[in-house]
Design goal:
about 350 residues; five-stranded parallel sheet; single chain; FAD/NAD(P)-binding domain; 2 domains
Length: about 350
């Protein structure tokens, strides 16, 4: 690739799988670049920053927001190059490696590529109500950043799936009143979450959709919602509205890269996170293989396996696996600093 700035591995996506792959690539002394579509690293954990994460081995229960801080700090251990707010639009395999083009038109060069894009680029589906966009800067919410912000308020949640019911249950202890407007005759969330609704003060409004928003005198906030029900119209006063109508998933990049996908629109791979295209690997929610573990703990194994295979792809004579951290000289100085802090 001549005088171009070529990386050993370019990781598309900065969620948990991409971040741990970034760390492990540094451990394996690979020149690493991460490109993330959003303005910050952390992936879908940003949707639930106050949700408690329980299922990471050796990690005490921790809010997702704090967990993001930890895995980001770990990922930056070996000073990778990080590119934010750029969408990868093309992955082209050449005789010399890969050319990765972003939405700005910039071309990045790498010897290998890892897809760590979760279920693809995910955008919340906007509510189909005229003029709704003007309330997005005030009290129309597509994510829940802080449970405390709903304290003492009347909240309407529009949606009947897993996330909508989960949010209603999480907000209920803080809010004065919580409604769920579900367009179907029943909820489609997890059975345990639906059962939990029956034990709290959430009121479920079935066969109900949001017809329009009623604004306050400033015309900047929603103060009421007009609902279309099976029996006609119902108007309720609200302080906050939360919408979860699912997400729009864009897998066009993966299709463009000619990576084989299954009927569920996931990348077909193996336990080493190899794909149908040599030099392209995939980790986390986007890859499917026999025995796949869809947990954060499982995605860390994906990341290590993918990086080990990346290393051998670009350096066939390299070791199959990286040296464990307890015996790895890369951590000698860092270990000394940590020991001084702990025992001085």
């Amino acid at each position: 690739m001549g005088n171009k700035d070529v990386y050993d591995v370019l990781i598309i996506g900065g969620g948990p799988s991409g971040l741990y792959a970034t760390f492990y690539a540094g451990l394996r002394k690979m020149k690493t670049k991460v490109i993330e579509y959003q303005a910050s690293l952390g992936g879908k954990l940003h949707i639930y920053p106050e949700k408690i994460v329980w299922d990471v081995g050796g990690q005490p229960p921790i809010p997702a927001g704090k967990f993001i801080d930890q895995i980001v700090n770990q990922a930056l251990t070996f000073a990778p190059t990080v590119v934010l707010k750029e969408q990868v639009t093309q992955v082209l395999k050449t005789a010399e490696g890969f050319e990765i083009t972003t939405s700005t038109g910039e071309i990045h060069y790498s010897k290998s590529v890892i897809f760590a894009v979760g279920s693809g680029i995910i955008t919340p589906q906007k509510i189909a109500v005229k003029g709704a966009e003007r309330f997005e800067v005030t009290n129309l919410n597509y994510t829940v950043k802080s449970l405390g912000s709903f304290r003492g308020k009347t909240v309407l949640v529009s949606g009947g799936g897993h996330s909508a019911v989960d949010w209603a249950n999480e907000i209920e202890p803080y809010a004065e009143k919580v409604y769920i407007a579900c367009r179907k005759k029943e909820l489609t969330a997890h059975e345990a979450d639906i059962a939990k609704l029956a034990t709290n003060k959430v009121e479920c409004l079935y066969n109900t959709t949001v017809d329009s928003f009623i604004s306050d005198q400033s015309n900047s906030r929603i103060c009421g919602v007009s609902l279309k029900t099976a029996d006609g119209e119902q108007i309720i006063d609200v302080d906050e509205v939360i919408v979860n109508h699912g997400y729009e998933i864009d897998n066009a990049l993966i299709e463009q890269a000619k990576v084989k996908m299954n009927e569920d629109q996931l990348i077909e791979g193996n336990g080493f996170c190899e794909t149908s295209v040599p030099g392209i690997f995939a980790v986390g929610d986007i890859i499917s293989y026999e025995g796949k573990l869809n947990l954060i703990a499982g995605t860390f194994q994906d990341a290590a396996n993918a990086i080990n295979r990346c290393k051998q792809y670009i350096e066939p004579l390299s070791e199959e696996r990286g040296m464990v951290s307890s015996h790895n000289e890369l951590f000698d100085e860092l270990n000394l600093e940590i020991s001084k802090e702990l025992y001085s």
